[in-house]
Each structure stands twice: as C-alpha cells, then as structure tokens.
Design brief:
By secondary structure, the protein is of the alpha+beta class. The chain is built from two helices and eleven strands. It has one domain.
Length: 233
C-alpha cells in the first residue's frame, strides 16, 4: 500500500511539473497567433495564495456530498475550437475519504462566453498591486471573465477512465447574476452525476494579446549617381 501511494505521488507530481514546464512555452506560442486565444488556470499557478488554502485546488460538490478537487492549466482558442489542458483530480466522499485520484486531460472544446476583460483583475489573491504587477497587466495577458466548457477525460490511477464535461467560471467583467460564484462544475457522463455546487478555488482566463505585425515598407528605388559629362571639344 505504501509503495502504491508513493508511485501515485510520483505520477501526480510528474504531471503537475510537466504542465508548469510547458505553460511559458504555450503562452509564447499563443501570442504569435491572430485568433482570440486564452491561457486557462484552474486552482493552479499564480491564482494560488500560499496564505489562503481555499484558493487552490478548485473544489466542487454533488448533492450527496461527494466532491472533486481539481487543478490544472492549459490553453484554448475560441476561434479554432481547440483546447490543450491537463491537471490532477481527487474524488472524495462526503466524509472526506479519498475514493479515487488521477489526472485529467481536455479532449474537446465545447464553448466559451466572455464576460469581458478586467485589466485590474490581477490573478494573485490578497496581494497588493505593485508597479511591476501593473506593468505586467498592461503589457502581458489580460485577465478576462467568462464561462468555458470542455469535454475532459478523467484517468484514475486505479480504475476505469470516464468522460465528463468541465465548466470553468471566472467572475471578472460583466458577470451574469446566475453565475456570480467563481469555480468549477463537473458532469460525469457515465451516470449523469452532476457536481454543481462550487465550494472554493480560484480560476482565471488570461487573454493573449494578438501579435501586431508591422506593415512592410515599400523598397525604395535606387537612383543612379549623377555623372558629369566631359565638355565637348
């Protein structure tokens, strides 16, 4: 049992480390595209506050009290209808007993509804806004509110994988009253079990600024140097 737990920890740690390692590269690649693209943070990365455990991971409950804890990062494009995202999950019973844990992988983009940009919505919780953070907000990705839906595959370390629909709701911008609670929701497709009570956790969408291409200058015509003709004799 102890050996199995150790292997599980190694697998989860490897997934998280891989995600964080590729995130800067994904950000750079997205910035070179012309379409509206976003970074996705679910209870992970800069949205986490080491002084507030409720910020990470994102937690959601079902009516019977079971819960899922998720974290992960990724990217998606609304125009291309594409998503690349992954993370880890833990399912617990109402009494707090761990029922399963593993990794999740996004398999398809479903939809995204933007609530609008919120440049002042720096993704660090309970942190003073410094001049450096303001500069990053102005020049870097733009915090944006919205509701995104993805199809994901839950792959437990022990057991059968299952398909689900993940909703990610970031309460920045012009937020509808019915979606005023930030967090995630999860719908398991095998038995139609809904986890619809957002318990805790921060999530963010960061809109990447499209690359601005400078129009090429027309080549200047070269003029032949003036030559003086020799005087006629």
């Amino acid at each position: 049992m102890r050996c199995q737990k150790f292997r599980s920890t190694l697998v989860l740690g490897w997934v998280v480390a891989t995600i964080y390692a590729v995130l800067p590269g994904a950000s750079s690649a997205i910035a070179q595209t012309k379409s509206a693209s976003y970074l996705l943070l679910v209870g992970a990365g800069p949205v986490c506050d080491s002084y507030d455990s409720s910020t990470c991971p994102a937690v959601v409950k079902s009516p019977n009290g079971d819960s899922y804890e998720l974290n992960g990062v990724g990217t998606f494009s609304e125009q291309d209808k594409s998503v690349t995202a992954a993370g880890t999950f833990t399912r617990k019973s109402a009494s707090g007993t761990t029922l399963s844990s593993g990794v999740w992988l996004a398999s398809a983009f479903v939809s995204f509804k933007s609530y609008g940009a919120a440049p002042a919505g720096v993704p660090q919780a309970n942190r003073p806004i410094t001049p450096m953070m303001r500069a990053r907000t102005i020049l870097g990705p733009i915090p944006t509110g919205g509701l995104a839906m993805f199809r994901i595959r839950l792959i437990p370390l022990n057991g059968t994988p299952q398909e689900a629909v993940l909703q990610v709701n970031s309460t920045l911008g012009d937020v509808p009253r019915e979606r005023s609670v930030e967090g995630i929701r999860l719908n398991l497709e095998r038995n139609s079990t809904e986890f619809s009570e957002e318990v805790s956790g921060h999530v963010r969408f960061l809109a990447m600024r499209p690359e601005v291409s400078t129009p090429a200058k027309a080549p200047q015509r070269e003029t032949a140097p003036e030559t003086s003709e020799p005087p006629h004799s």
